[in-house]
Design goal:
Blueprint lengths: L4 H5 L1 H9 L5 H64 L7 H26 L6 H8 L1
Helix pairs in contact: 3-4
Protein backbone atom coordinates (compact mmCIF):
# COMPACT_ATOMS: atom_id res chain seq x y z
CA UNK A 1 0.00 0.00 0.00
CA UNK A 2 1.54 3.28 -1.12
CA UNK A 3 1.06 6.60 0.53
CA UNK A 4 -0.44 9.14 -1.81
CA UNK A 5 0.18 12.72 -0.72
CA UNK A 6 -2.55 14.22 -2.91
CA UNK A 7 -5.16 11.74 -1.77
CA UNK A 8 -4.28 12.30 1.92
CA UNK A 9 -4.11 16.08 1.88
CA UNK A 10 -5.92 17.12 -1.32
CA UNK A 11 -5.34 20.75 -2.31
CA UNK A 12 -2.89 21.33 0.54
CA UNK A 13 -0.55 18.74 -0.99
CA UNK A 14 -0.35 20.77 -4.22
CA UNK A 15 0.48 23.88 -2.21
CA UNK A 16 3.29 22.10 -0.38
CA UNK A 17 4.74 20.62 -3.54
CA UNK A 18 4.79 24.00 -5.28
CA UNK A 19 6.24 25.99 -2.36
CA UNK A 20 9.25 23.84 -1.48
CA UNK A 21 12.08 22.70 -3.71
CA UNK A 22 13.63 19.26 -3.38
CA UNK A 23 16.33 18.86 -0.73
CA UNK A 24 19.77 17.99 -2.08
CA UNK A 25 22.77 16.47 -0.32
CA UNK A 26 24.46 19.89 -0.41
CA UNK A 27 21.50 21.31 1.54
CA UNK A 28 21.86 18.56 4.13
CA UNK A 29 25.61 19.23 4.42
CA UNK A 30 24.99 22.96 4.78
CA UNK A 31 22.39 22.31 7.46
CA UNK A 32 24.86 20.03 9.31
CA UNK A 33 27.57 22.70 9.22
CA UNK A 34 25.09 25.30 10.41
CA UNK A 35 24.10 23.09 13.36
CA UNK A 36 27.79 22.57 14.17
CA UNK A 37 28.33 26.35 14.19
CA UNK A 38 25.31 26.81 16.46
CA UNK A 39 26.65 24.11 18.80
CA UNK A 40 30.10 25.69 19.05
CA UNK A 41 28.53 29.12 19.49
CA UNK A 42 26.44 27.81 22.39
CA UNK A 43 29.53 26.29 24.05
CA UNK A 44 31.46 29.50 23.59
CA UNK A 45 28.64 31.63 25.03
CA UNK A 46 28.37 29.27 27.99
CA UNK A 47 32.11 29.41 28.71
CA UNK A 48 32.24 33.20 28.36
CA UNK A 49 29.23 33.61 30.64
CA UNK A 50 30.81 31.35 33.29
CA UNK A 51 34.15 33.15 32.92
CA UNK A 52 32.46 36.53 33.34
CA UNK A 53 30.68 35.37 36.50
CA UNK A 54 33.94 33.96 37.85
CA UNK A 55 35.74 37.26 37.20
CA UNK A 56 33.03 39.23 39.01
CA UNK A 57 33.16 36.88 42.01
CA UNK A 58 36.97 36.96 42.13
CA UNK A 59 37.02 40.76 42.02
CA UNK A 60 34.55 41.05 44.89
CA UNK A 61 36.49 38.47 46.94
CA UNK A 62 39.79 40.21 46.25
CA UNK A 63 38.28 43.54 47.19
CA UNK A 64 37.01 42.08 50.47
CA UNK A 65 40.40 40.58 51.35
CA UNK A 66 42.23 43.77 50.35
CA UNK A 67 40.03 45.85 52.66
CA UNK A 68 40.66 43.49 55.57
CA UNK A 69 44.42 43.32 54.99
CA UNK A 70 44.76 47.08 54.55
CA UNK A 71 42.66 47.62 57.68
CA UNK A 72 45.03 45.40 59.65
CA UNK A 73 48.04 47.21 58.18
CA UNK A 74 46.61 50.60 59.11
CA UNK A 75 45.96 49.34 62.65
CA UNK A 76 49.58 48.15 62.86
CA UNK A 77 50.90 51.51 61.64
CA UNK A 78 48.76 53.32 64.22
CA UNK A 79 49.91 50.91 66.96
CA UNK A 80 53.60 51.35 66.11
CA UNK A 81 53.19 55.13 66.04
CA UNK A 82 51.47 55.08 69.44
CA UNK A 83 54.24 52.80 70.75
CA UNK A 84 56.88 55.14 69.35
CA UNK A 85 55.22 58.22 70.91
CA UNK A 86 54.89 56.46 74.26
CA UNK A 87 58.58 55.57 74.12
CA UNK A 88 59.47 59.18 73.29
CA UNK A 89 57.42 60.57 76.18
CA UNK A 90 58.98 57.93 78.41
CA UNK A 91 55.59 56.47 79.36
CA UNK A 92 57.02 53.05 78.42
CA UNK A 93 60.43 51.89 79.36
CA UNK A 94 61.96 49.06 77.36
CA UNK A 95 65.49 48.35 76.33
CA UNK A 96 66.66 50.03 73.16
CA UNK A 97 67.24 46.78 71.26
CA UNK A 98 63.69 45.61 72.10
CA UNK A 99 62.14 48.79 70.74
CA UNK A 100 64.33 48.69 67.62
CA UNK A 101 63.49 45.04 66.97
CA UNK A 102 59.77 45.63 67.49
CA UNK A 103 59.65 48.63 65.17
CA UNK A 104 61.75 46.91 62.51
CA UNK A 105 59.62 43.75 62.69
CA UNK A 106 56.36 45.67 62.30
CA UNK A 107 57.62 47.59 59.29
CA UNK A 108 58.99 44.38 57.74
CA UNK A 109 55.58 42.78 58.22
CA UNK A 110 53.85 45.77 56.62
CA UNK A 111 56.19 45.58 53.62
CA UNK A 112 55.70 41.83 53.23
CA UNK A 113 51.91 42.08 53.50
CA UNK A 114 51.92 44.82 50.87
CA UNK A 115 53.94 42.52 48.62
CA UNK A 116 51.47 39.67 49.22
CA UNK A 117 48.54 41.93 48.38
CA UNK A 118 50.16 43.16 45.19
CA UNK A 119 51.25 39.70 44.05
CA UNK A 120 48.18 37.61 44.89
CA UNK A 121 45.25 40.01 44.89
CA UNK A 122 46.28 41.64 41.63
CA UNK A 123 47.71 38.80 39.52
CA UNK A 124 48.96 39.10 35.97
CA UNK A 125 46.47 38.14 33.26
CA UNK A 126 46.38 34.39 32.88
CA UNK A 127 45.54 31.90 30.20
CA UNK A 128 41.78 32.38 30.47
CA UNK A 129 41.53 33.95 27.02
CA UNK A 130 43.58 31.12 25.49
CA UNK A 131 41.03 28.60 26.74
CA UNK A 132 38.22 30.60 25.17
CA UNK A 133 40.16 30.88 21.91
CA UNK A 134 40.63 27.07 21.80
CA UNK A 135 36.90 26.54 22.17
CA UNK A 136 36.08 28.98 19.39
Amino acid sequence: MEFNLERAFGEQAKLVSTVASPVSSADVDTYGRLQDIFGRSYKLRTVISAWEQQQIQERSLRSYYARIIFGVLIAQVVAINVFFVLLGRQCLSVEKWTANTFIFAVFAEIASMTLVVIRYLFPKPGNDLEVIARIA
